[in-house]
Amino acid sequence: MTGTVRPLRRSEVRDPFAVWRPALLSHKLKTKPAEIKLFGREIVLFRGSDGRVYALNNRCPHRKMRLSQGHVDGCQIVCPYHGWRFSGEGAGVSPGTPGMKVSTESYEASERHGVVWLRESGGTDEIPSFDFPGYRHAALLYHPLHAPLRHLLDNMMELEHTASVHSLFGFDVSRLHEVTTSTTQKEDGIHIFYDGPQRKLPLYLRATSGIREGDRFIQYADVKLAPIHAVYDLQWRDPKQNSLRGMELKFVIYFNEIEPDRAEQFTFAYFRCDGPLRQNLFTLLRKVLAFNINRELTADVKLVESLHLTQQHENSYLFGRFDKPLHMMRRMTTQFPEARTEADDKEQPGVNSR
Q: Which domains are seen in the chain, by residue range?
């Protein structure tokens, strides 16, 4: 572990809604309002007659009816209980008390990359462009799960599990001891590196990707804290020539807490392929990759959901050499609202500090 690990300062702690974060796949928002929950907040999204997306507190301030049960009228949403209506900016009108000052909390909403993004008003950050030269879009994937956010993050920060849980992209279980890994703390997150022998792939994937069993599978991961997301770069190299194979993958995955025992992830997947054969098979390769990336991520979700961990379980983790990112993240997030757990507030019994 490189550098001195410290908790984030209070001045570095940011509200989960202070920055843009993905909230809903755009195609799921049509003419009817949509209800979502993020970090315990109930939010209603609706598309106005101007085509824009608006986001408000889902509970009507009058008698706390869900606005998502109502309907859209122009660029307003109408509560189904007493007919109170609200603009996309949160300004409201009570038909029964016309002079009454009515308002509700609103959020900024924007659509990009096939997703509705949200943040509190007044933010200064920009929605990422995902401009990766040479890369093409492979898939946009969404996975909800019934498990705490921290359990999802734990799984996504280590690759030891790929030898057992994944069926395609990952290390050969019989050669896990050969894998090299390093973890470095950054100001806004951590950087993780893995390098080890790729497991055997099925013939159809070897033919379309050029990857061979025993190739060096290399992954760079940058895990950021505001908002919590990770950028994964995957590449394969000939173990003898050290030359790149014809395909590289890049995943940008955003992680949200829905409520304490539920989470979700939005995955933006991209790929780069070289060689005339793979270029000619571009459409087929993209479909193959989208299917298999979804397959691998779904396997992760099912595994994490099956853990059913208690706080006592987490307090007695015994970390191995692949788990340095988990230990480092726990030390960094003791005051970070998006990932904080009670276990983060104290040194964990059974943890091997490195």
A: 21-119 (2.102.10.10), 136-345 (3.90.380.10)
